[in-house]
Amino acid sequence: MTAPAPVLALDNVSKVFGSKDKPVYAARSVSLALYPGRTLALVGESGSGKTTAARLIMREYRPDQGQLLFRGAPVGDGSLKAYRAAVQMVFQDPFSALNPAHTVRYHLERPLRLHQPDLGATARQAAVAELLERVKLDPALIAAKYPHELSGGQRQRISIARALAVNPAVIVADEPTSMLDVSVRLGILNLLNDMKSQLGLALLYITHDIATARYVAEDIMVMYAGQIVEWGDMDSVLGNPQHPYTRLLLSAVPDPDRRFGEGRPDDELSRIDVIRRQTALPQPEVRTIAANHFIRPMPA
Amino acid sequence: MNVLSIANLSIDYVGAESVFHAVKDVSFNIAPGEFFGLAGESGCGKSTIAFAISRLHRPPALIRTGSKILVDGRDVLELDDAELRSFRWREVAMVFQSAMNSLNPVLTIEAQFYDVLNTHLGLSRVQAKARAAELLRLVDISPDRLSAYPHQCSGGMRQRIVIAICLALNPKLLIMDEPTTALDVVVQREILQRIDTLRKELGFSVLFITHDLGLMVQVSDRIGIMLEGELVEVNDAQTIYRAPSHDYTKRLWASMPRLHGTPIRQEPAS
Ligand SMILES: Nc1ncnc2c1ncn2[C@@H]1O[C@H](COP(=O)(O)OP(=O)(O)OP(=O)(O)O)[C@@H](O)[C@H]1O
Ligand SMILES: Nc1ncnc2c1ncn2[C@@H]1O[C@H](COP(=O)(O)OP(=O)(O)OP(=O)(O)O)[C@@H](O)[C@H]1O
Ligand SMILES: [Mg+2]
Ligand SMILES: [Mg+2]
């Protein structure tokens, strides 16, 4: 069997912020690949570099090292316009992602105008309505509203609808449903799942919600301090987590059966400080756990 | 006496052509030291209530006559401008749903702490810096970050900084509208556990709005469930979880993704 080719990849990418004496390693030799019809979930510590990875993919940041590949070729300035249309991003913060001066209709018509210039006014209206319905919003109620007239979850759905408007090949979604109730969240994720299987969309799903990630993604990567510390097949990583940070993360997933302050704390939770200190060190070695399951073990 | 007492609260958004009833006749109380969770579908009116309690609602939001919001026995809707200034932060502090962009982008984190600490407590720059460092430690952020600007901090760091600022004046009621959406579960757990400990030590109450039902049950004493502007069920957290009475609450539990076993317990079609 020949492996399918990734549509988009980060190849050994590094990005450092801050000054020489106080560097912040936001990405340390990060490699990831997105495949048509597959979802990769990126989870990890707050501040570990997930949004930085997304911004590197969106070409908002230039990598200090490594490269960004689209359909196998490095993304250069010449090919940027086509790249920007093919790769869409849903931003982490829906409150700053939308322009306060414009209505919902405007936000959705703009990408349609750019990418389907032949569409007539009536057809465009219909396309806007269809996009809103896809994200479970009532066009009659919502299309004429301004961002400040929408709730947090409604704004998130507008961002998603906008990304869908241009039929992209890749969507990078940074916490796209964090402000949605579970039922709407599942609706949106099912929608993305359908697009994935029907249109061959490739999805990078950045999230803190591992239970939901399990529901939509085939692969998962766990990030800490700029490094991917464990990655591979979703069931294998969740079922047989090998890196201490992954175990820590899984043990902290909210569980309604265990009230705060009751019962015995997990091993991992009582070792938080040690795990954090160790995981922040560079971890160059890669160990294979299973066919599609790897970790960078903590230095002993 | 209750720290918060809401009675028959109705709030409309008044538009040119139509009126949208966002909150309909909602009543509930929060006792001193109590952790109260408020959940419900997106757009059901949770943030609208939070804004009204802090008196931060603005036109076209209109609170209907007959509505009552008492904080520590005082009628919030009657406060004049001078009273409001001391009411905010000292009585009620709110972490907004958009906390991650509610910081001033052109001021360092240190300057934002100074603003609040100087205005309300008259602290000097040196005093404010020391207090700010202490508050940041409470939310697990290194005091090194005091000299940073908001855009240099990740989404989750900004959320934690806002929580720290809200704790600065020991408010009686802390309102947190989705305060941890950008935090990983480890940090989220640490922060909420810390707030849980602090409220027990300092005695403040919490109104916690979230879509994470599992988390809500873990930290809340009581929970209210909203649907289309109405509060449809209020009970202690364990009852809401183990023996919900409203259909909507049951559906919420059924569609909650799980980490182990079947990803989702789907309800049989009704
Ligand atoms: N423009 C910038 N200038 C300086 N430092 C930055 C910049 N952007 C990000 N950083 C730093 O890089 C690190 C990674 O940030 P990033 O936003 O990628 O984290 P994240 O994983 O998305 O976190 P969260 O889950 O909290 O959103 C953080 O320490 C952050 O402070
Ligand atoms: N300024 C406004 N003008 C008109 N309608 C508004 C305005 N602000 C909010 N609304 C509407 O009022 C309803 C309640 O909004 P609110 O922000 O309180 O919801 P929420 O429960 O906090 O939702 P979420 O969980 O998505 O944040 C929504 O349907 C929203 O569209
Ligand atoms: Mg981020
Ligand atoms: Mg809200």
Can you identify the CATH superfamily of chain B? Answer: P-loop containing nucleotide triphosphate hydrolases
Low-pLDDT runs of chain B: 265-270
Tally of strands of chain B? 11
Decide which structural class fits the backbone of chain B.
alpha/beta
| Number of domain units of chain B | 1
Strand numbers in spatial order across the main sheet of chain B: 7-8-9-3-10-11
| Distinct helical segment count of chain A | 13
Descriptive key words:
heterodimer, A: 300 residues, alpha/beta, Rossmann fold, four-stranded antiparallel beta sheet, 12 strands, B: 270 residues, six-stranded mixed beta sheet, five-stranded antiparallel beta sheet, 9 helices, 36% helix, globular, disordered C terminus, binds adenosine-5'-triphosphate
Summed up:
With 300 residues, chain A is α/β, with parallel strands linked by helices. Chain A is built from 13 helices and twelve strands. Chain A has an eight-stranded mixed beta sheet with strand order 6-7-8-3-9-10-12-11, with helices on both faces. Chain A has a four-stranded antiparallel beta sheet with strand order 2-1-4-5, with helices on one face.
Fold and architecture overview:
The complex is a heterodimer of chains A (300) and B (270). By secondary structure, chain A is α/β, with parallel strands linked by helices. Chain A has a single domain, classed as P-loop containing nucleotide triphosphate hydrolases (Rossmann fold). Chain A has helices at residues 50-57, 80-86, 94-97, 104-115, 121-134, 139-142, 152-164, 182-199, 210-216, 234-239, 244-251, 267-270, 272-279; strands at residues 8-18, 23-34, 39-44, 65-70, 73-74, 87-90, 170-174, 202-206, 219-224, 227-233, 287-290, 293-295. In chain A, helix 4 crosses helix 5. The longest helix of chain A has 18 residues, at 182-199. Chain B has a six-stranded mixed beta sheet, with helices on both faces. The chains are: A alpha/beta (300), B alpha/beta (270). At the A-B interface, helix 7, helix 8, helix 9 and helix 11 of A face helix 5, helix 6 and helix 7 of B. The complex binds adenosine-5'-triphosphate (2 copies) and magnesium ion (2 copies). One adenosine-5'-triphosphate sits between chains A (17-18, 24, 26, 46-52, 92) and B (151-157, 182).
